[in-house]
Amino acid sequence: MVYRKGDNGQAVDPAGVTPCGEARPTSEPVLEMSFEVGHYDFAAAGEAASRIKQVLRKLGMAPNVVRRVAVAAYEAEMNLVIHSVGGNILLNVDTEKVTIVACDEGPGMPDVGLAMREGYSTASDEIREMGFGAGMGLPNMKKCSDSFSIESEVGRGTTVTASIKIA
Ligand SMILES: Nc1ncnc2c1ncn2[C@@H]1O[C@H](COP(=O)(O)OP(=O)(O)O)[C@@H](O)[C@H]1O
Ligand SMILES: [Mg+2]
């Protein structure tokens, strides 16, 4: 199932939603970086998002763009830590936008529409005690993004793509 923000129901371009490693926005990248994120690795959780933030600051991006990308990257990273077997975050910057692609190889989401609902979370009590599991991560990512999509298949994995326009 594919969820996209901003495509007004037209057919989904399969080139826009690609598996791990092949996820590439269409224009020529200015910068591309990949970060590994480990399942339940709370010691390192948040590092990818904070490095992404540093890189964008160094590139001289507008604070508002940096903030929106940082929020999307953090939510994506925490979802990999908490809900997936572990995965990767790809940062892609081109002349028009910053794209964050978070991908993993499991367990996948049975219902993407449900996962997108504010307050919906399958986080365990243990995770909730750590302060996570408010069910606002995916809705926040969507709010922060100019373009947003989720592709997920149970048993195969999930790819979440968020793009933020630079100008
Ligand atoms: N990478 C993922 N793999 C599998 N399920 C996921 C993934 N990311 C999110 N989910 C599912 O979507 C739900 C909602 O995610 P989110 O809005 O970030 O809330 P939270 O992380 O607080 O549970 C999660 O509880 C989980 O069931
Ligand atoms: Mg989350």
Which labels suit this protein?
single chain, 167 residues, alpha+beta, Heat Shock Protein 90, globular, disordered N terminus
Query: What is the number of helical segments per DSSP (H or I, 4+ residues)?
Result: 5
Q: What count of domains describes the coordinates?
A: 1
Provide the low-confidence segments as ranges.
Answer: 1-19
Tell me the distance between the termini. 31 Å
Structural class: alpha+beta
Report Rg. 15 Å
In the CATH hierarchy, the third-tier topology is known as Heat Shock Protein 90
Number of strands: 6
The fraction of residues in strands falls at 25-35%
Q: Main beta sheet: strand number and arrangement?
A: 6 strands, antiparallel
Helix content: 25-40%
H/E element order: EEHHEEHHHEE
What's this, in brief?
It is built from five helices and six strands; from the N terminus they run E-E-H-H-E-E-H-H-H-E-E.
Walk me through the structure:
- 30% of the residues lie in helices and 26% in strands.
- It is α+β, with helices and mostly antiparallel strands.
- The protein has a single domain (2-165), classed as 2-Layer Sandwich (Heat Shock Protein 90).
- The longest helix is centred in the middle third of the chain and has 21 residues, at 63-83.
- The protein is globular and about 40 Å long.
- The chain starts with a strand and ends with a strand.
- 36% of the residues are buried.
- Residues 1-19 have low confidence and may be disordered.
- Bound molecules: adenosine-5'-diphosphate and magnesium ion (MG).
- Magnesium ion binds at residues 75, 78-79, 137.
